[in-house]
TrEMBL record, chain A:
This is Monosaccharide ABC transporter ATP-binding protein, CUT2 family. Keywords: ATP-binding, Nucleotide-binding. It holds the Pfam family ABC_tran. Residues 5-245 form the ABC transporter domain. The keyword Lyase does not apply. GO terms for molecular function: ATP binding; ATP hydrolysis activity.
UniProtKB/TrEMBL annotation, chain B:
GO terms for molecular function: transmembrane transporter activity. It comes from the Bacteria. Part of the ABC transporter complex LsrABCD involved in autoinducer 2 (AI-2) import. Probably responsible for the translocation of the substrate across the membrane. It holds the Pfam family BPD_transp_2. InterPro entries: ABC_transp_permease. This is Autoinducer 2 import system permease protein LsrC. The complex is composed of two ATP-binding proteins (LsrA), two transmembrane proteins (LsrC and LsrD) and a solute-binding protein (LsrB). The lineage of its organism: Bacteria, Pseudomonadati, Pseudomonadota, Alphaproteobacteria, Geminicoccales.
Length: 255, 316
């Protein structure tokens, strides 16, 4: 089966700085792929290119085998790639249902005005939250009063309803308490179970080993290793990240 | 909670202010409570209500939104449309022409803000002087007479105690805007972009286009207000919109709209408009000079902003 996304030879330069260099990576549906690496390794830059937030300097992205060029996050969203920007993407003065449908409300046109179809939206959100097993007691409560984990659930429900087939999460648990982190990791597995592809960036090796099917380690803009979870150990991954692993040394020499 | 409490606190303040005003009047000027005074309050409320609604929309849309040109637009629309009538525009086209002209002047503000990226405060301060100055320059400061007489009943007549323009303009536009804000996707977009512009943009809301339309709407409402002054006074006066920027801003803030955008409703604004006009009328009634009335509005504005600071601190 063709991978949902194939990235080939992706490079990105900021002036003289090579933030990414010749990255090849496949992303499959129904699979959680974790991106690991030190700060500045190029993980965020890579997912921003996938999400249409920045163009690559070199290389090609293929979606289901077809080459694509995203001019904006909107283009990427149309191709089924949804990014969960952490705090930024929710409006705290609006409630859960309003946030899930913000910008793409379900409406009925009467006299030229887009009248909201509240019941339809409410029902859809109830279904999504139930499927995600998200613990949000009141979908009509404002997002402003919710915990970090609940906000992630709202953002994920939004991504799913947009028909997201690849959901990108850049450090979704960085600011969360332990119990909240557990819930978000559960949501990540739910997404994969629904045959979504998920890219998860996280610094927490424990979290990554709990949810990821596959891991890719970035170092100084290059992808230096790719491992199935069953075929590796936390120690090996940490060694790859820090540069203590022989593969990492070889990569450093080659650079 | 924090998000709603601010407008709510102000609505409460408005309620207290109303009670205080009514109490004082009942004690010291019971003659105030007569039908003729109520009728006069409504008569004077229409113009302020219309421009305050535009002001409220611009402020709600956030991005430091403010429309200081509302009064200047009323003046210039009144002058331009009467000059057009004198230049041969058929009288029956005066109403649509005035409203359209207002929309065009509002479009000017909107383009300065959304296309040139000027700070709304600066852009509309510029057009306050530009539009206001033009109204004076075109007329040398004098009125332009010649409003078709068939318009007078609209400006001066009432149904019971309620002026026709209040019934025909104020009530419908407030109800329409309230419905749009609460029941349509557009209203949601305005609240979202007013509160968190970044989130709104990421969600795909055409923020700049919506904001442009808010300034245009403010202009259209100023055009309606200008038409009311024409039908009322029978002539165009180049300074008719004086102080409306200050009074409309006071009405918007006293009425519970957050100056930061995103929160508030329009019926609070209407209640605040009626309060401000009643306060001015009461001062007139008590022979307090007009200059003091402007000072009182300024004081009211400061009072509301002080209460805001306190509420924010309590919630922080
Ligand atoms: N917009 C930018 N302009 C210049 N340099 C950038 C920009 N974005 C990222 N970089 C640089 O690219 C490198 C990779 O950054 P990033 O992808 O954010 O790393 P990571 O997410 O793995 O921590 C870093 O050296 C960073 O400073
Ligand atoms: Mg990063």
């Amino acid at each position: 089966m063709t991978p949902f996304v194939q990235a080939r030879g992706i490079g990105k330069s900021f002036g003289g700085l090579k933030a990414l260099d010749g990255v090849d990576l496949d992303i499959h549906q129904g699979e959680v792929l974790a991106l690991l690496g030190d700060n500045g390794a190029g993980k965020s830059t890579f997912v921003k290119i996938l999400a249409g937030a920045q163009p690559q300097s070199r290389g090609e992205i293929r979606i289901e085998g077809r080459p694509v060029a995203f001019a904006s996050p909107h283009d990427a969203a149309r191709a089924g790639i949804a990014t969960i920007y952490q705090e930024l993407a929710l409006s705290e003065n609006l409630n859960v249902v309003e946030n899930v449908f913000l910008g793409r409300e379900v409406v009925r046109r009467v006299l030229g005005f887009p009248w909201l179809r509240r019941r339809a939206m409410r029902q859809r959100v109830d279904t999504l939250l139930r499927e995600l097993d998200a613990h949000i007691p009141d979908p009509l409560a404002r997002v402003g009063g919710m915990s970090g984990g609940q906000r992630q659930a709202v953002a994920i429900a939004r991504a799913l309803d947009q028909g997201g087939r690849l959901v990108i999460m850049d450090e979704p648990t960085a600011a969360l308490a332990v119990a909240e982190t557990r819930k978000v990791l559960k949501l990540v597995r739910q997404l994969a179970a629904r045959n979504c592809a998920v890219i998860l960036i996280s610094h927490n090796i424990g979290d990554v080993f709990e949810v990821a099917d596959r891991m890719a380690v970035f170092r100084r803009g290059r992808k230096i290793a790719e491992r199935q979870r069953a075929a590796t150990t936390p120690d090996e991954i940490v060694a790859l990240i820090t540069g203590a692993h022989p593969d990492a040394r070889t990569a450093d020499l080659a650079a | 909670m924090k998000l709603t409490s601010l407008p709510k606190a102000r609505i409460l303040v408005l309620f207290v202010l109303w009670l205080a005003l009514l109490g004082l009047l009942a004690m010291f000027a019971p003659a105030f409570f007569q039908p003729a005074v109520l009728r006069s309050i409504l008569q004077f409320s229409t113009v302020l209500a219309l421009v305050s609604l535009g002001q409220a929309l611009v402020v709600l849309g956030g991005g430091a939104g403010i429309d200081l040109a509302v009064g200047a637009m009323v003046s210039l629309v009144a002058i331009l449309s009467m000059l057009a009538v004198r230049a041969g525009l058929p009288g029956f086209l005066l109403p649509p022409a005035a409203i359209l002209l207002g929309g065009l002047l509002g479009l000017g503000n909107g383009l300065l803000v959304t296309r040139l990226g000027l700070l709304p405060l600066i852009a509309t301060l510029g057009t306050l002087f530009l539009y206001g100055g033009l109204a004076l320059a075109l007329t040398g400061g004098g009125p332009v007479p010649g409003v078709p007489a068939w318009l007078f009943p609209f400006g001066r007549g009432t149904l019971g105690l309620v002026p026709w323009h209040f019934l025909a303009f104020v009530l419908p536009v407030f109800v329409l805007v309230a419905l749009i804000l609460s029941q349509t996707a557009w209203g949601r977009w305005v609240r979202a972009m007013g509160f968190r512009e970044n989130a709104a943009r990421l969600a795909g809301i055409p923020v700049s286009r919506v904001r442009l339309l808010l300034y245009v709407t403010s202009g259209l409402l100023a055009g309606m207000a200008a038409l009311v002054t024409l039908a009322w006074f029978g002539s165009a006066r180049p300074n008719i919109g004086q102080n409306l920027e200050l009074e409309s801003l006071a009405a918007v803030l006293v009425g519970g709209v957050s100056i930061l955008g995103g929160a508030g409703g329009v019926f609070g604004v209407l209640a605040a408009v009626l309060f401000i006009v009643s306060l001015k009328t009461a001062m007139q009634f008590s022979n307090i000079a007009t200059t003091w009335q402007v000072g009182a509005i300024g004081l009211l504005l400061i009072l509301v902003l002080l209460i805001d600071r306190r509420t924010v601190r309590w919630n922080a």
